[in-house]
Structure formats: structure tokens, C-alpha cells
């Protein structure tokens, strides 16, 4: 096999693994997060948004995958997912990252690295803009269960299924198919599922990125039981509550993480609307 063919295969694998929530999915999370930021956080992230809305920048890390630079073609893919064979295999304490060192090996490492960079007083504005945009995306990605799927099937990308008769794969179904089946804009979807329930917000925030990884891992294990792989109304009925919960959790937790990074006075990590 030629070197060119091997490179193309490697790039294909990276792109398959890097696939994420649809644009609507990420923007739903960004819109919800925007509703729960403190005033100080809003002021702090204004230079990082560069005139964009939070919902807009959540898709940046996917949009940049077409950039021909080596980082985007060879390195960035692994930032979007994590593959673990069992819950016991995931060892969060093995990750040692700071704002100035540490390799990003998977999505959990990416979230830790981005958080450290953004909290550091020594980080340049350019680097903060980069890691801020990536962080808003990664928090969304880790709430998509198949981003903690199995390595052998590329997080469900190699598992063929049908959704209302149309061929797709298990990963894509969870990235896009189920979200888009609601026929809502991202702002409508966010408005419908967002919450002002302080108790529920508190429950969602009583967690850390390592918990989000394990939540998605455990959810993914059940999703691999696809039966005959023919999904219609029953699957939507069964799984849409999970989709809505993960999108809401992603939004609330993104707000909580940003408030934690940028607003030292915030008693709660996310605020009610």
C-alpha cells in the first residue's frame, strides 16, 4: 500500500472519530450555557468571543477540521473523543496537565488542558481565544455518549443502522439524526429544554469532567444494543429524553465551568435565568 493511501486512511479515521454533535447540537449547548453565565464571566469572555455569540463558537473546532495545517489534520482529531474498554480502565489521576505542558491525548485531557490555559495569568490572548473555542466544543462532545464509545468501531461510526429507512451509522445517528428529527432551530430547541430549576442545576453541577466521561461511557454501552438496526418512532420516543438531558447537562455544565474559570466570586457555578 502506498504512503499516500496510508495517509488518506489515517485522515479518514481522524475525521470519523472527530465527528460530533451536529451544528444544532453544539449551538443548543452554547445557547443554554449563555443563559447561565454570570455578569463577570460575560465581561471576561467578551475578548475571547471576538464579536461572535457563544453558540456560534461552539462549532469552531469542527469547522477547522478542513484547515490543511498539520495540527488540524493529524493532531486535533483525538481531542474530540476518548476510548476506554471499561470504567475501571479510566484513570483520571493519571492525567497531569498544566497551562504550560502536558500532551492532549483525548477529550478529557483536552478539557483539562483548556481549563488550565484559560485560568493561567500567563496565557496570551491568542492562546486563550484558541482554547476557549475548543473548550466550548469539547464540553459538548463529551456529553454525546458515542464520544466515549469503543475504539474498534470508531465510536459507532462503523456500525451501520437505518433511521426511518435511510442508511446511517450509530455515531451519526446520535450526532445529528436524533437532534435534527425534532425539526427545531437551535434557539427553539434550547428554549424548550432549558431550565430555571435551581435544584436540578445544582445536581448537574455536582460533577466534574471525569464524571461526564463515565456518564457517556455507561450510556454508550446500552446504545450498542441495536437489535436489527432499524430505528423509527419507537427509538425516538425511547432516546429523545436522553438526548435532551445530555444537551441540557452540557449547557449547564459549560456555563458552570466558564463561571468557575472567569468569575472567582461566583458562589454557584451556574446561575438561574
TrEMBL record:
Cited InterPro entries: PLipase_C/P1_nuclease_dom_sf, S1/P1nuclease
Signal sequence, start to end: 1-20
A Pfam family recorded for this sequence: S1-P1_nuclease
Alphabetical UniProt keywords: Disulfide bond, Endonuclease, Glycoprotein, Hydrolase, Metal-binding, Nuclease, Signal
Coiled-coil positions: none
Keyword Hydrolase: yes
Protein name: S1/P1 nuclease
Species this protein is from: Pseudoalteromonas spongiae
PANTHER family in UniProt: ENDONUCLEASE 4
